[in-house]
Amino acid sequence: xxxxxxxxxxxxxxxxxxxxxxxxxxxxxxxxxxxxxxxxxxxxxxxxxxxxxxxxxxxxxxxxxxxxxxxxxxxxxxxxxxxxxxxxxxxxxxxxxxxxxxxxxxxxxxxxxxxxxxxxxxxxxxxxxxxxxxxxxxxxxxxxxxxxxxxxxxxxxxx
Length: 159
What we know:
The protein is built from seven helices and no strands. It is mainly alpha-helical.
């Protein structure tokens, strides 16, 4: 499907863009910089109207595996952020700008973001087991307070 999209949809969109650009330049709505070559000289028309289209995402069946595969391709030099983001329907430049904004805000608020692709550990299961032990034997060591966390909503609303 990707190759058919490239041949049909992208070519069609590029032709429309080229016609729009030509009309805008000729009407004076989009003037070329002083001293720049004419739109019609040589291959300038192709150079001026060169573009790349980012279409809708093809979707993912197993997001974890496909994301890990994309990271491996980029790390191995077999893919770029531009290509992988494009497959998801995103502009890689916008992703980087947004990521920088998020990191800056997280640093200001002293928040640590865990962006690893590893599956969650079994820490939560261990905590549940520890709570069960503490509930059964209040004198047990290492167990969490059985009443801890009962007023989570009240605590969250106070901040």
